[in-house]
Fold these 3 entries.
Entry 1:
Amino acid sequence: MSFDLLVTRKLIKITEGILTNTASFIPSATVIRWGIIGCGNVTEIKSGPAYQQTAGFSLHAVMRRDAAKAQDYARRHQVPLWFSDADALINHPDIDAVYIATPPDSHLLYALKVAAAGKICCVEKPMALDEAECQQMITAFEQASKPLFVAYYRRSLPRFLQVQQWLQQGLIGQVRHVHWAFSRSPNPADVAGATGWRTDPAQAGGGYFVDLASHGLDLLMFLLGDITQVQGMAFNQQGIYPAEDAVTACWQFAAQPDGSKAFGSGYWNFAADKRRDEVEIIGSAGSIRFSVFDEAPLQLTTASETITPDNNPIENLALENSALGGFRSEIITSENGGSTTISVQIDHPPHIQHFHVQNIARHLAEQGQHPSTGHTAKRATAVMAQILQSK
């Protein structure tokens, strides 16, 4: 994602967080006390601290079946309560909300218990093993009149809200096609025979495809609308674990308000020579390139005449409305004939679920709709199931 002629270079130190408008967020006077079921690696840096640092929230309890590890987590993170039994955490009177951070095969079980206890819930992605389980969870929380969130946190990240803004500004015209190429070399632990739950379809619902591609497919539906038709092929090329390790697919998005329809394609290979993570959205008047996981620059190429004082992708960046200290953006522009290319580097926050959790707080305070709910997450599970039908 580079180019030769640098016309201007601009470094911005961000002091506020993108589109979440946290400066105006007014937390409830009552602190919501969260408990985590499954305080494993994902909660150490990515998510756990976000619940501690969000105004109006506190991380009050953690649970892990290994009591010593639960106690150690609580000590290191200064969490008041720890448990080795999930029911004890869910039903504790001092817990108002539960974040389920276990493998997908237990999401339904724990979510139904949280709903029965009448408490708020956020569940890790993918939401469940299949679409039917997702619907059971949705129904349970609707009957309990409690919200159900899913940790597809890329819907709340500043870098992807910037992509969304460019699309909404019409800077690449009508969207025609999107392609996502993802690959990585085999995991040494898998090669050595020490496979984990992410390659066990009974626990994960599939392999690394389900674990990782769910993020990007959900993000693409957030940016471009629901996927209405999809076909795929899945194979096991290495034969070192039960799940698929090579997947390819093509799909169609729902019609846009102007009646246009976009198509998509992708491949995900976990037995390749090296890591790749490249998305390109191709439009009638330009393109946008970015990575789903890597912090590579966002690159917008657009016809120069589309940039006007009222529609300027540099002067009207969504990131100018943001609120998180220490978070950096760098903007580079170049011109080549009748087109302009703009490259924007937007760093992730230190705790990548920060904006996702912050948006939960805003939702609960009735100051905004959270972008990732049970209803939106179910669609990603349904799309992946259709892709994997051929394996």
Note: The chain has two domains: 8-16+155-390, 31-152.
Entry 2:
Amino acid sequence: MKFTILIPAYKAAFFDECLKSVFSQTYADFEVVVVDDASPEDLKSVADTLADPRMTYHRNPSGYGAVELVKNWNNALALCHGDYLMCIGDDDRLLPNCLEDLAREIDLHPGFDLYHTRMEVINEHGEIIDIQLDRPDFENVYSMIYHWIRGRRQCLGEWVFRTETLKARGGFFYTPCAWAADDFSAILAAKDTGVRNLHRPGFQYRQSSLSVTKSYDYSMPKIKAWNIVRTELESLLADEPADEIDRILRRFAIQRIPRFFRTAKLTEVKKDMYAGTDLKALWRRLKQCKRVGLSRKQILATYAYRYIESLRSMY
């Protein structure tokens, strides 16, 4: 059984740390595919210091950029030859037991298109600042959707996809800025077979000021992404399942959808306030309210709340 560790790379800050964690695995049958998205930083020199024959390095002739991250992931899929695939950030880390634990789980429970390794969150100093709540051994897609809608924290690197199935589906689910693309790619992968969850942490997500998640520059593409995901999610939940518990989970998820997506989009509207363009952003959002699926009243209320917050912080 062979794994692919796909690393779309752009930042050099923690890249060496990321690669070393991958090559510290206790399980040896894997390949590493690094795709440099035309970075202005010298990532190749960092990769060359390891000189491991299991690693291939590719540099895009021009960058996809932050808005088209998913297109970069899917372009890189053609370079992946493992049976199962993990896609991790250039600043994330794998724990040494990660692939060995996954290989054991897959041997014990074959036939799934999706597996999950538990996540730890680390800061810029590599210190653990949070750990993901444990999950049951198995979940179906309705359980995954229900817990996601309720605020379950997750990211792309903790999911392990069957490569053949992911490619047959056309790759990772597309949204601008890859916003919720990781969540929905996992949901689609679990649609038929569900997911097997591992209990021991195997992946470390780095919370850093350098990530797209922390950027205030892409609020409009992220709002568009939430609209795309909502449409697909409602389509996925259109048919009622046969199982009684699944019907309950589906009903609760549908009830929460309007508030979940409204809150998510208003969060992006708030971020404009931090970018130093308050009045311009407010005027732009008021003109775009129909496009983003929010009312003028909701946008004005959000800006008023943020303005009060800013005044309080001054005293």
Note: The beta strands are 3-9, 30-36, 55-59, 84-87, 93-94, 114-122, 128-131, 138-139, 159-162, 195-206.
Entry 3:
Amino acid sequence: MRTEGSPKASPAQPRDGLGDIADVVELVPDTLYALANPYAVDGSVSWHPSDVRGYAPMNCYLLKEGSDALLVDSGLPVHERSVLRGLDELLAGGERLSLFPLRVGEFDSVCNVAAIVERFAPQAIYALGVVAGPGWFDLGRGDSATRRADLEATEIRRVGASDVIALGAAGTRRVEVFEPALRLLNTHWVYDPATRALLTSDMFGHAVRTTAAGPWVVDVDDDVTTQADVEWHMLATRYWWLRGARTDELRRGLAEPFERHDVDMIAPAFGCVIRGRELVARHYLMVDEVLRRAPRLLDAVDPRDGLARA
């Protein structure tokens, strides 16, 4: 289902988190799309606090430039068919696809790589240097020998700590790739100057919706996320280790891409896309405030109760 990246877009049909059709969200016409696969935030998903309820999307992002297309992340196995259908729609013009799974150690980033390779025969897979070869992505259903042969036929292009991926016939769309200061496992963030979008991997995934209909883009008119929501999202899940940590260097590192680039959109691997310069600034400042407070937050107190003071 194709929707615009607007809260006023026609919503997807409600689903139970195992939906078989991705919402193809047009973030920038003909240039940047999200394949947003909704799932239930119901206490069983470890990248959200166990007591938060609602719905959020698992996102893959497709950057299109002329005859080139770059897919960032590949989604969860349960969403394999919907990701493939979304790509069938977006690549109907015969664009040459490349893949870039940002977190090669996490399933939501790599698990559908083999299925995408089988369907679309991409020209390359961009990957961290830790990837020893195509066998790293040998996951999924079907005949393993065929899957491995397809992967072996695909070029692996190593991505450094700071790098550029050039898109388009003349390579004029230069997508910047860099290691972020704030991360859990090895990953990259991606900045696309053409759309002013910052793809933030496992950070900024705190915005959820109340229904499975979305929409999956948060704009200034419908942003209900609070400072306490962001703090609890980070400290009750992947970034629990920030409590009591020295965060001055992390704060400087977090600020750097926002100071160096014009960022109009934050596009996380999971959770709603955050769009608009004003909203980007607000959510950046909320994450920075968590880092400022973190050294004094030694107890696992839910800030939404108004009990934590720092």
Note: The mean pLDDT is 88.
